[in-house]
Every structure is written in structure tokens, then in C-alpha cells.
Amino acid sequence: MQAQTEGRREANLALLLRTLRARGPLSRAQLATGSGLSKATVAPLLADLERRGLTERAGTTTTQGRPGQLVQLRPGAVCGIGLDVHPGHLGATVTDLTGEVHLRRQTSCDTSAPEHALDRLADLTRRALEDVPKADWAGVTVAIPGRADRATGTATADRLRWRDVAVVDGLAARTGLPIGRVDLDNEANLAVRAEHDSDPVDDLVYLTGDHGVAAGVIANGALVRGADNRAGEVGHMVLDPLGSTSCACGRRGCWETQVGLDAFLHACAPRHDQVHNPELAPGERMTILRTRAERGDARTLDALHRTAAALASGLSILATLLNPRKIVLGGYFAALQDWLVAPQRHGRTLVSASTLGFAAGGRGAALAALRRVLDDPTVVPVKAPKAGGSHEGASA
Amino acid sequence: MQAQTEGRREANLALLLRTLRARGPLSRAQLATGSGLSKATVAPLLADLERRGLTERAGTTTTQGRPGQLVQLRPGAVCGIGLDVHPGHLGATVTDLTGEVHLRRQTSCDTSAPEHALDRLADLTRRALEDVPKADWAGVTVAIPGRADRATGTATADRLRWRDVAVVDGLAARTGLPIGRVDLDNEANLAVRAEHDSDPVDDLVYLTGDHGVAAGVIANGALVRGADNRAGEVGHMVLDPLGSTSCACGRRGCWETQVGLDAFLHACAPRHDQVHNPELAPGERMTILRTRAERGDARTLDALHRTAAALASGLSILATLLNPRKIVLGGYFAALQDWLVAPQRHGRTLVSASTLGFAAGGRGAALAALRRVLDDPTVVPVKAPKAGGSHEGASA
Fold first, then answer.
1. A95 or B24: which carries more pLDDT confidence?
2. Which of A12, B40, B75, B114 is 20 to 30 A from A348 in CA distance terms?
3. How far is A264 from chain B (nearest CA, A)?
């Protein structure tokens, strides 16, 4: 009986946290209405959340002449770290429960050597823990541009030349974090969750625009992973079977050979042009190309127009099959949205550019790392009464 | 309080019915284990189901030396009617709760005149009610090869030349059935539910093979309808943008222009050949073509091989995007499975032929009509004690 009551208590704490997260500062009465709990139940639960440092008071509101205390999530109380891996560079994002980004860092790295990449991911993790010292840490999640096996903690990604790389064990060993605080998932799946977090529509598709092209699909409000965790590998839809370009997967005519970043950069400029320099961050390369396009450079504009047309072919298929409310385009598609996103029209499906840039996967990963706390707020310890501003991390 | 207890009771009755449906004859102890209810709770609920004529005793089993009475669903106790509409013909299917088909009838009909088609659908409904007289009737569901708006009870289908046809009102008025007993849904969505009913895998696609080609998609165990109820309209994926054939939708190169039944029949035989005779049922036309293929007729075989290749292009896209456990091909694909289904290989996705033929939508519709009883068994009235074999219909 006790266990059942406790389970109910954790679930109710989680419900209050999610309600505050979705609807901003609320009075106790509003929180009761919003969560479906009684005011008498809400009061002690709120006190519990405050003791854990998760919520704080936020002024008062007046409803029907009676003043009421407002409560909100405490910014920076608990943070999650999201790491993103791309051919040639790594990123780290720290967000708190409110979704605010406390840190975004990017660094070039030869990611084709997995052990070296894991060393650098561990460095990024340690620096994040140091740079946001006041937070409790929920955990770390790594966004993989390929297959992430969450059961074994391993990743396989053709573009990175990774095969069954033990990401979770490797990162836990290097940072000293417990295995249970380290997780990984597919980049597109994490990115679509980040988009869903800011606009929770039931039917949503996110398309990565990087060296690889993959879709994160939410249908009926739930992520579609497929029978073998391979749903959304749309870069390998064969749309140009007579095409001459071989894909990294060994086939010809994959959508990725038409609209992937490699194909696009190749179409934009000769081999020794600075846009091919792996030392430049993707965002910097896109700035160069945007400038060229705005100046009317013929080769750049031709590449943009051909890419927009090939993008339209594939997006039309996604829209026809899934009928999503919205398709969000990320990566370089978003960076060059005036040419690549604006021309897209696919029935009643809204096509828009992600505002998260190349870091969408990392942002989704940081939010995924926070899920542990959102599912059960009691994993965050109760703070000592009258504690100063500095809460020690739960795990760091 | 009373209402809440009643709600719980109905939910528990529904749970027992579904458990019996999924696992065949069970003892009271097995039913308790299978449903998660206590043996003390199960006993009076079972008595209730029996009083409604939904269950019956089915011999005994011996477990650990102790004999136990087995219970099963009573065959033919409650039936649902599924109606299917195709260009040129109509069908009716009656199934009971066990899934057994009690009646399948097919008739040619000029379906392009909606009022005439509704008259004939009402005839089929009345004949079904007469021909299975001992059943309680759950209701009637119509499978539409196009868009079914369940909120308004209307259907729009290009292939039938139907636009906002008031199917539910029209059929209710003609048969005297209450509006709440008449429903409609998209044919592919109903067919995939029929397939899911016999093999409940979480990620499943059904592809209709008729004049139109559409997919019913189940992901995470739930039907994907999309934001505007238009998901699965895969016949209109543009796979051959340079193709010369115009589609009924006004575009060029839709998958349907390559693999729809019209395109296939056109490729198989000249215009005056008997396979184009609308008086022949689709199954009969397929038998003619199968015979020709088996005799090595060059034109038929060429059409089959080209259709198999175009089918493979689209199936590859479905498999890549959705990563389903299984894709089931219906209609003429299934009728000519040796040439059209057997050659298909798409990663780890199993591709198989439906065993339900052109009536898969009708079968799914009959099962959907039974949902009302499966959700709440108390809609079936308690039978008079010592009643003879003839139960009067609840609504008919």
C-alpha cells in the first residue's frame, strides 16, 4: 500500500512539474485546475517541489479580487546536457527544465576515430558541468546521426564510420557519471522532440539537413521508431534510380545524393573552395553561401534551385504518406531557408525552418536528458533548509 | 459513485471479452490471469456475459489435477456488417465477435451514381440482416476507397466520382437503423485493422491493390490518420515525374498510374478484352489473367514484371520511411501474388499477400462495426431466461 501511495505521489509531482512547464507561472488554484488535482493535494506537493529547489515564487496574481501567490519553475534548477556528433565537429548544449539554453559550445573534431571522439565528448561534458556549477544534473544524452541502440548503448553511423561504438559505456567511464545518467538516441528523433516541445502538434516531421538526411516522425503524438528502430532513414529513399551518384549506403539514387550537404556543397563550389574546409563550422560555411546567393552568384543560385526541386520531390512523398500538420527543416535547409524552405508547398502541411540550426539534435538530447526528472522529480534531492545559492550537483 | 462503479463494470466486461477473443477458450482461473482481474471479480462478470448470450461453456480442462470449466465466445452471438464500395461493384461481409465470416456477398453496381449506390447498399444490409437472423447486430460500417469524414458521415472518392456523399444519413434513412449504428471509414484504414486483428504487430502497413492504391498505416500499435485524415494516400506519391500518364488527381507520375488496377489491366490486354468487362467481379478477371500468365502469355507476363518493378520502387520508400515489421498487399496484388508479392524484398520488412482478397476493407468494416460491443458489452441486452435458440436482434 505504501509503495502505491508513493508511486502516486511521484506521478503527481511529475504532473505538477509538467503543468508548470507547459503553462508558465500559475497560482495554486490555476495549478489545481490545470493538473486536475484538488487544491488540498496540490499544496503539500508544491512544498515538496520547492524543497527540492525545482520551483520558486513568482509574484502574485489577483483573481476575482483575491490575491494569489504565483509559482514557476526555478530557472537553472536542474539541467541536462545534450551532445551532438557530426562528421568533423561536436557540440554540447545545456538546457534547464524551462527549456532555457545555458550553454552551447561547438568544436571541430576528427569524428571518424571513435575513441578520440569519445575523449572529446567527455571533455565537453566536464566543461559543461564546470561552467554551469549551480545546477543539479539530470544526465547526458548523445545525439547520433545514425542508428542508436539504446538497449546496449551503442551507435552505428555510416557517415561517421562508426560501427557498434560503445558510446554509453565509453562516456560513463571517461566522465565518472553513472551508466543510468548517460543515454543516446538518433539525432532526428531527438530533434523532432525538441520541435514538439516548443509546438506540441500530434503529427510532426523534422528533417535533418546535414551530410546525412533523416526524418524524425511523430504520429498520434508519439515518436515512430519502426520495428527495427530504423524508421525515418529517408535519406535512403531511392528517388532517382537512374542517377549517376553512388550513395554511402552502396545504392544509387538515394535522396541524400540529391539533397545531402555533400551533394549541395559539391554543386556550389569547386573542391578547393573554402566552403569545403572542415575547420569551418557548418554555420560559417552557410553564411558564406548565403552572401554569395544574395550577390547573385550563378553557381550558388543554380545549386540552390536544383536542391529546392529535389527537396520538394521527397517532401511531397513525406506529406502524402504521413499527412503531418507540419514539416520542420533543419540544418543547412534552415540556414538557407529563403531559397530552400520558402518555395515549399505541400498540400495543407505547413513547411517551416527550424530555429534550432545544426544544434537541434543537441537541444533535443538535452531535453531528453531531463526526462528522468520530469518523470520522477524525487530523483532531485531535497535541499538543506536555508541553503545558500550554491546547490551541489546530484551526480557531478 | 454509482456511475463510476458501472463504468468500471463495463470496462471489466469489455476486458474479459477481449481476453476471450485473443486467447480462445479459457478457464475462470486462466481468464483471471489473462485479464489481471481477481477470480472473485471474474465470476459474476462471466455470468453477466453469459446472460447476454455473448459467451458459452466449452468443455473442461484439467490443471494440476483439478477440473475447470472452459468458457469461450459464443459463435454468431453478435454480428457486424461491413460494406465495401468499389468502382463497378459493392460487397457485404458479416462477421461475429470471434472473427468468423457468416456471409460474404458481392454484386455489380454503377457506383458513380451515389443515390443508386446507397439504395443497393441498403438492399445488401437488409439481406444480411435477414440471412443471419439469430444474431444481435452491432451495426454497419462502410469502407470508402477515398476520404471518409466520420464527424459528418460523408465520403469523397475521386475514383467513385463521389463528393461529400452523405453515406451515414443516407443508409440510416433507407434501412431504419439508428444513426449511431451506421459508420464509415477509409478502406485502407479498415483493411489494416483487419490484418492487425489476425496478427497484432505494432508496425504494419496494408496496401490496397485496386483502381486506387492506398496504404493503411499502423505505427506504435495505433492507426496513423494524419493531421487532416489524409495519411496513406500513397497512390499519389509522385514517383515518375517524367511519366506521360495523367492521374485522376490531375498530376502526372503518381504511383497509381504505374501500379493501379487500371494501369495494370491496360498493360495486360486491349480495350475490348474480357478483363475490362465491368460485369465480371475483380476476382474473376484475376483468374483469367493468372491462367494467361501460367500459360506464358508474353503481354500478361510483361505487364506483371513491369508492375512488380514499379511496386518495388514504392514499397521500398514505405519500408525506408516507416520500417514496418510487415507490409501486407491486398486486392489484385494478392490475387497475382506469385508475380507481384513473391519478388518483393525490402530490408527486414516482411512482405506478404493478404488472404482477404478484394474484401479486406469489408472485413475490416465488419470488425469495426463490432467495436461498439467490444468497447461496452452491456449494449447487448440480457436474454430472457430459458429463451429458445432465437434471439431477437437488438436493433434490427
1. A95
2. B114
3. 22
